[in-house]
Every structure is written in structure tokens, then in C-alpha cells.
From TrEMBL, chains A, B:
Gene3D superfamilies referenced in this protein's UniProt entry, alphabetically: 1.10.1660.10
GO function term, MF aspect, one: DNA binding
Signal peptide location: none
Annotated TM spans: none
Keywords: DNA-binding
InterPro entries: DNA-bd_dom_put_sf, MerR-type_HTH_dom, MerR_fam
Protein name: Transcriptional regulator
Superkingdom in the source lineage: Bacteria
Pfam families: MerR_1
Source organism per UniProt: Planotetraspora thailandica
Amino acid sequence: MRISQLSAESGVPIPTIKYYLREGLLPQGEQTSATRAEYGTAHLHRLRLIRALLEVGRLPVAAIRKVVEAVEDERTGVHTMLGTAHYALASPPDPHAGDEDWEEAREHVDRLIAELGWAVSPHAPGRDELAQTLLTLRRLGMAAIDADLLPYAAAAMNLARDHEMGMIPFDGPRDVAVETLVVCTVLYGKALEVFRRLAHESESARLLTPARDHAEVRTQDT
Amino acid sequence: MRISQLSAESGVPIPTIKYYLREGLLPQGEQTSATRAEYGTAHLHRLRLIRALLEVGRLPVAAIRKVVEAVEDERTGVHTMLGTAHYALASPPDPHAGDEDWEEAREHVDRLIAELGWAVSPHAPGRDELAQTLLTLRRLGMAAIDADLLPYAAAAMNLARDHEMGMIPFDGPRDVAVETLVVCTVLYGKALEVFRRLAHESESARLLTPARDHAEVRTQDT
């Protein structure tokens, strides 16, 4: 298809497509004459991936380039390719080298992951993110012991194992696998966050004289 | 205690305490002379609550004032008070009045919550947040049917029922209950998000020829 049709089918404006071509995020089309190039479904898949990384993952162009490079390099295994996208979604804290509380929290996280038996790289940014969360909980006076954390680890693993890994089409194009991973991670993550708040409200209503008090929230809120 | 001791015990600088007093977020101390006021543990609790809403909840001062008003007004039931904090943490999308896809997504959410039997106010901002997430999933070509959403609802309710509601000290000061709710919601929510990414990595390693490929992530990442 021509660039105009690629734009129509993908919903991405032509100038934006040209920008992605210049930035190397989108591979060049097949040149059929001096002024004309042909694009195919691979380009459509790539545009969907870029949109997912940009709009859902909210990644900067430099991070998108890294993910696209992993997708394009067929020597990069699928696990590593997915890991590149996952790591790009992380927001690890600034390093706290030499801070004793930080070192202790990070060791706590490493020990916990080892005890869970999870196959997670020692360099996974999630380890630092989790250590930071632990540290903040403690500074606010919450114990944040393993008994508090394990239910979250168990819930996450159940969702990953029984539900989420099955969503990713491993046998299709590499772009599509990464796009699905990013969309699932971010948007079902958002759904989970909202369901938690709704579940809190519901349980709070059930525990705390529901009928009268529940009506109060409604009135106050309108 | 004097304001200087309140500052030392809470870790909040005196000018910030004075700002909270002016803004009405912190109740005035007991005036013991023209230039001296006494503060107590209630002030310490309030300062901890304000810090949690500010640093963990990342709420603007106007939203913090609303939460503080609900905490201070003893006629506000505990369920409504907690709901005020919860609703302040929400980030509902802009209204989409008249947009058919939006109306359909919102009806889908309302039906789902009714089928779950959850006691959630019709005005809970989470309903709109969930509808927006559904809409985005669909625009990206994901079916996002009930079978996809229900595991998240179940995981959230299990955590709320078996674990999270028990963390909140309902029999203590009102400030402490709200502070705990906000800290638990936000920080354990962050822990859950990170555990999900770690669980994905671990499952991906398990499914996709772990040994070799897993080592690749490590090498690439150093």
C-alpha cells in the first residue's frame, strides 16, 4: 500500500509516519520508483506498537527506539525482547548507594524474590522499585514485613500464570507480542488498581453499617 | 508540647506547620498565653495524615482540605470519611457525554459491578476510570470482555477482604484510619504493580527456554 493508505488504515497522520521513518522507528517501505514506496502489514503492526508504547506506555522516543531495536533484531530471543519492553515501563528510583536503610530494603527484596523462587534478573528494575516502596512504607511507620507483601506477590503470580501470559500471541509477529504485553501490563494494571479501590469501598460499606452510611456518600457526592 | 517540639517529633519544619495552621489543615493549638500555644498527639496524627496525602497520595492542598474536613466532622460516618479519601485518590477521565462508545463502556462497567454484587456508590469515580480503561483497550483492538476483567476484580476483592481492610485501625483516631487507608491503597498498589511485572518476567523465563535467554537479559542490561 501507499503511504496515504498506510495513514488511513493506521489512523496515524502522514507527517507523523514520515517522522517515524526518519527516526528509524518504522522501517523504510519498498522503493518502487524514485518517488514511491510500498508499505505492508509489517508497517501497520509497527505503527500499532509505536502507538501503544507512546500512548499507553507513555514512553519517550529514546525508550521506544530501544524497544523497536529489540523487536527488529531477530537474534534477540523473545524473552529478552519482552524484557526490554517491560524494563522500559519501569520507573526505578534514583540510586541510594551507601544508604544503610536502602541497602537493607534492597536485600529484603532480593531475599523475598529468591524465597518465592521467581526467575527474575538481578538487574530487573522492579527490584529497586520494590525496595523504594518498602522503604517508604517503613518511613511512614508501617512494618511492611513479608506477611504483608506475600499476598500481593501471590495475586500477581496467579494473574500472570493463569491469565496474562496466555494473552500474548507468541506465535505471531514480534511487534504484536510486544504490543500486547505493553497494553496488558499497563491497562489491566489500571483496571486492577481501580478494582482495588472499588473493592475497598464495597467492603467498607459491608463492614460499617452499610445502608445509612452508604447513602451518605451518594448524597455528598452529587 | 510547643510548636518547636511538634516540629521535631513530626519532622515537619515550623514554617510548614504554620502554613498548615493558616490553611486550616491543622487545628489551632491550645493558647496558653498571648504568644504560646500547646499542641498534642492529635496534631502529630494530623501532620502524619497531611504528609501521607501530600507525599504518598500526591493530592493538591484543596483535595487535602476536603479530606481533613471529613476527618474533623464527627457526624461524617467512618465509611463516608474513608470514601472521601478514596475518591480524592481517583483520577476520573473528562466526561464523554453523548459519546456512544463511552456510554456503552460505562453501562458495561455498571452491569459488571452489579453482577459482582459490590456495594459501590453510583457516583464512585472508579466507574468512570474503569469505563475509560475499557474504551482504550477496545480502541487498541483488545476484546476486554468480562472474562478478561473478572480475574482482576476477584484478585482485588480477595486482597481487600482477606488482607487490606484488616490493616485499617477502625477503633483508633479518625486521622490514623484515613492515613492508613491512603498509604495502603497507594503503596501496596505500587507493590502489586511491580510484582506483576516481576511475575511476567519470571513466567516468561519459565516458558521461553529460560536458561540461555534469561542470561541474555542480564548481559544486555549491565
